[in-house]
Amino acid sequence: MTRTLIRRRVAAWFGLSVFVVLVAAAVVLRQLFADALDREFGASQEGIGALVHSFFLAEVPEYKTVENTLAHIAAEHDFAQSRVHFVRPDGTTFEPLPGAGTAHPTLAPPVRAATFPLERDLAPGWTVRVETSAATLVASRRRLDWWLAATVGGAVLAALLAGWLLTGRALAPVRAMTDAAAAMGPQAPGRRLPVADARDELGLLAERFNALLDRLDDAMVQQKRFLAVAAHELRTPIARLRSEAEVARLAGADAGEALGRIERDLQGLAAMVDQLLQLARADALPEGVTPVAASLDDVVAEAVERWRAPATARGLSLAVRALDEAPARLDVPYAARLVDVLLDNAVRYTPRGGTVTVAAGLEDGRATVTIDDTGPGVPAADRPHVFDRFWRGGSARQAVPEGSGLGLALAKWIAEAHGATIAVGEAPGGGARFQVVFPVA
Q1: What is the topology classification, in CATH, of domain 289-437?
Q2: DSSP 8-state assignment for residue 384
Q3: In this prediction, what percent of the chain has a pLDDT beyond 70?
Q4: Topology of domain 2-140, per CATH?
Q5: pTM of the full predicted structure?
Q6: CB 374 within 8 Å of CB 431
Q7: How does pLDDT run across 260-316, given as a tens digit for each residue?
Q8: Which class does domain 201-283 fall in?
Q9: Which of 16, 118, 298, 417 has the most CB atoms around it within 10 Å of its CB?
Q10: What are phi and psi of 410, to 5 degrees?
Q11: 145 to 15, 25, 29, 157: CA distances (angstroms)
Q12: Helix, strand, or coil here: 223?
């Protein structure tokens, strides 16, 4: 019932539209035809009056009087489908002698009459009344009405049939998409809507919907991978914590040393959970960043001060190459988190005795922060994946086994939420260079 509702509705509207147009055209055509018939009928009566007038002018010299002339005309001339009466000036009708002619035939109703002057000079006051049967006129109108009714009815039926067929043909891709959508589900994740013609509106809609399904599938795959890797990454430190506690309990090891290792594992676990929470919030609230007018150089300067002590503790030199005024639209807490992630990454992977260099300022009118290190760098083959969640290259795992692979993913989300671009390259000293370029303030 519902599958043909649109088809019925469109066919009905199509038929109704054709009906309205044809009825309007039929009314106009009927009126024009009726006016033409009336004009022709009136012209025929005027012709009879003119003919009687010409006969009267031609024969009155011979018959001398008006009545004798009219009697002769009535006897000699017959007018089909019409009766001719002659009316005296006093309003009485002049009747010729019975049997004088056939000027008074029996007329089929309805009858229409028209009056014309006979001759103003020779027969002043006399008039000619022409009575004509309008039965042929009425029959012609009736035939026209039947013809118009049959034409309108046939055209409406044809329009309904055409609308039904055309709508069915037009809605065939919709039915195919409906059937394909009904067959979709978890058991068939790769099914897509059929695209009959990518150039029309339905084809474009199907392509857009298929693209949406592709993004949803990618999101589901990414979510499954995210959950699997997160479970694995969380299980490892938890298992290590349990092992530490069990070994310390069984071996009677020094409680302070065991608690120190457990504390370090808990710190790493807390950092991972915090990053997971930040990414979960990013997925749930993609509009969570609210930039305001701020100075990127101030954010970078505060971050450098926060990381100076950790860098010194690891035997690194944290240097500022440039710190110029860089106005931008920033969500300051998120921007600070972004810079912290990049500095943490640089400090973590730079070996003892190395240097981390920070620069902030304007480049082509855009606020930019650049962080270079003298660590192992990021191989060119790994750079397209370095911002993926839980992804860590082989060299990174060897240098820092305890990493989670979430920090740079969080940094990328914060940059994109600001409309900024983040990129990784090679630093002049051979290490990694991370650069974030914010849009023009």
Answers
A1: Heat Shock Protein 90 (3.30.565)
A2: G
A3: 74
A4: Beta-Lactamase (3.30.450)
A5: 0.46
A6: yes
A7: 666 666 666 665 566 555 555 555 555 567 889 999 999 999 999 999 888 998 899
A8: mainly alpha
A9: 118
A10: -65, -40
A11: 21, 13, 10, 18
A12: helix
